[in-house]
Amino acid sequence: MIGIVVVSHSRALADAAVGLAAEMVAEDKRPVIAVAAGLDATTFGTDAMAVSEAIGTADSPDGVLVLLDLGSAVLSAEMALEFVDPEVAARVRLTSAPLVEGLVAAVVTASTDASLDAVAAEAERGLVGKQDHLGVATAESAPVVEADRAVEVVVGNEHGLHARPAARLVGLVNGFDAVVTLTDLDTGKGPVDASSLSMVATLNAQQGHRLRVGASGTEAEAVLAAVENLAAENFGDAVVETTVPSPGGSGLDVALGPAVLAGAGVDLGAYVAGDNELLRLDDALATARDQLRELQDVHGDIFAAHLALLGDRKVLDDVRASITAGASAPTAWKQVYDGLAATFEGLDDPYQRERAQDVRAVRDRVLRLLVGVTAEAPTDGILVVPELDAATAATLDATRIAGIAVRAAGTTGHGVIVARSRGIPLITGIGDVDVPPGVVVFFDARTGSFEVAPDEDRVRATITEREGERTRAIADAEQPATTRDGRTIDVLVNVGVVQDAVDARGADGSGLVRTEVLFGDRRTAPTVDEQVDAFRAIARALGGRPITIRTWDIGGDKPLPFLPQDREANPFLGERGLRVFRRRPQLLRDQLEAVRRTAAETQVHVMFPMVTTADEVEWALQELGPRDGLEVGIMVEVPAAALRVSTLARDLDFVSIGTNDLTQYTTAADRTNAAVAPLADGLDPAVLQLIDHVVRNAGVRVAVCGDLASDPQAAVLLAALGVTELSAVGPQVPLVKAQLRQADLGRVDTAAVLAARDAAQVRGLL
């Protein structure tokens, strides 16, 4: 096997690149990789003598490939060849391949015992996958002929056939005497050479895509069987099973147990500063990066935000400057990150304010590493915290923690999202209630109640009842939601990521595909093809049932990184939803093209958010163009739209009521503001009267896709008012369907509900 040398001006860069490349292949198959980088751990530069020593370390009878970054790295490598034995120098190849991408490709190819020429060629093609993805023109590759003998496999990996699973596939293929090709049947890309990591990368195969694997040669049958087995094992990626809460969360909305208090912060009092605080910081940062990458592998891109915060160059420069001026590493780190958290908390945008949680989570992770303390995961009780960070939620033992009670309000924090995805019972916004450590507490997220020292017999009976409800509901999830008086209500799922559709049990389709969430982690706008791929994957996951795609809904609490907006004094009353695109429509036009293309293959509806006037509806329909059977609707989220719905819906097929915003605008209460959040209650009679008005006057099908549709009791009331389609969050779909099957809508006293004094009286009537 050939050896590899990495020459770089930066030791940190070289070590990180080697670490990334090493993850692509098993340890026992890795080539020897030697590093000659930096003049020391922190000083930039290259040293010809260090390069010559690295060549000696990596020397192999099969040859040595040297990858380098720029400038003097090339000169140092050339000079190093004069220092080594001529026989060794004769089998050394300097390559112009890109350092990071080339190294990854070289390590994967070398692990298959490929020749120096083959490894060098693959390294030099390292940028092809990235160039293809970004639409950068590249030299034409020789055409690949697809073999007659083939199998079809499906990419199950959440992030598609990314670097690690692609590397495993390439390594497998290169172990057989066969020529193997890959074709993405969903995009039409290919065939490409499956023995080349760069070529496999050009497919950009996403989760749910079908791949045709062709093979010819003496071991064609064997390699096809091996690829089928690898695909069945998720191409070696860990499978995160979220259909049932994992690992072991109850999935209930109630919890009982002793209070476990956390969130006191990291004690820096015992820290003793040393001679090299900068080195201590670098060591802590390296360990923190490793920890976060492990979390990201299991829990997805939520931890990408933490990694980005950890590597923010401006912030790190400020920390290092403070250390250089005499501060200890923990003090400097804490001061800078406290300031960054305060900056986030000062923003108008509620969603961005909640990102201060991420800043504090990264702050404390590094502080613990610097002072040498380990964060102990609480067990056997209800965790009571000021706020919930994603790392805590991800590392809790869900089989032992009874639940989580968060003092802060807000439901969009990353920690809340992770905890709910793991089925851990959770309540937010309990406020400053006094909770002594160890005292038994109980909460019911359905009613929003939190009790200290409750009547345990009473609350255990409630828990037993909820457990029975959930068990029966999941068992019957695929049955239609037909009420006792014979009305069938479609119960669908709200989708923000493809996994939501994969995990949904019993959903009759998706009543809301949140495109701003689906692509919200991107810094550049998705192409039409990328949007089509995502929509297809959602439709496939739901078995071809209808999906309702909401066009970009941004502004207020939902920014899009690739569509910056001007600062507004009151963003909730500013350019939100459809309003944004009247001045810059191209992004919407691309999305509508993706919707039309998807609708040609599967059942698709489209709806426009934040509509207020008939002129807006007319403009949106003009942008859409010919419908060709595509059903079109709007979101009813503001009182003005609800009151004039008969005018707005004249040329539509349906309307969907967004109860979250409709409630917020009707009650003039920000649902993320703990001081007024109780006013923003979807069961307020004023909100229900507007829903009733919409149902009676729309003249088209009426759906509800806000949080109210996820409340089983409220769902019965909505159906009694005449709503025929409910779109709920995934875990609630079986419960909503079960509650509807038990209901006789004719016996619901809707007149009394609409005339009720307040939301509390409505709940009493329900």
TrEMBL record:
PTS EIIA type-4 domain sequence ranges: 1-136
Catalytic function, reaction form: dihydroxyacetone + phosphoenolpyruvate = dihydroxyacetone phosphate + pyruvate
Cofactor(s) for this UniProt protein: Mg(2+)
InterPro entries with a match to the protein in the record: DhaM_N (IPR012844), HPr-like (IPR000032), HPr-like_sf (IPR035895), PEP-util_enz_mobile_dom (IPR008279), PEP-utilizing_PTS_enzyme (IPR050499), PEP_util_C (IPR000121), Phosphohistidine_dom_sf (IPR036637), PTS_EIIA_man-typ (IPR004701)
GO BP terms in the entry: phosphoenolpyruvate-dependent sugar phosphotransferase system
Record-annotated HPr domain positions: 146-238
Record key words, sorted: Kinase, Magnesium, Metal-binding, Transferase
Alphabetized GO MF terms: metal ion binding; phosphoenolpyruvate-glycerone phosphotransferase activity
The protein's Enzyme Commission number: 2.7.1.121
Top-level class of the enzyme under EC nomenclature: transferase
Record's GO cellular component terms: membrane
Family: Belongs to the PEP-utilizing enzyme family.
Function statement: Component of the dihydroxyacetone kinase complex, which is responsible for the phosphoenolpyruvate (PEP)-dependent phosphorylation of dihydroxyacetone. DhaM serves as the phosphoryl donor. Is phosphorylated by phosphoenolpyruvate in an EI- and HPr-dependent reaction, and a phosphorelay system on histidine residues finally leads to phosphoryl transfer to DhaL and dihydroxyacetone. General (non sugar-specific) component of the phosphoenolpyruvate-dependent sugar phosphotransferase system (sugar PTS). This major carbohydrate active-transport system catalyzes the phosphorylation of incoming sugar substrates concomitantly with their translocation across the cell membrane. The phosphoryl group from phosphoenolpyruvate (PEP) is transferred to the phosphoryl carrier protein HPr by enzyme I. Phospho-HPr then transfers it to the PTS EIIA domain.
Summary of subunit composition and partner proteins: Homodimer. The dihydroxyacetone kinase complex is composed of a homodimer of DhaM, a homodimer of DhaK and the subunit DhaL.
PANTHER family the UniProt entry points to: PHOSPHOENOLPYRUVATE-PROTEIN PHOSPHOTRANSFERASE
Protein name according to UniProt: Phosphocarrier protein HPr
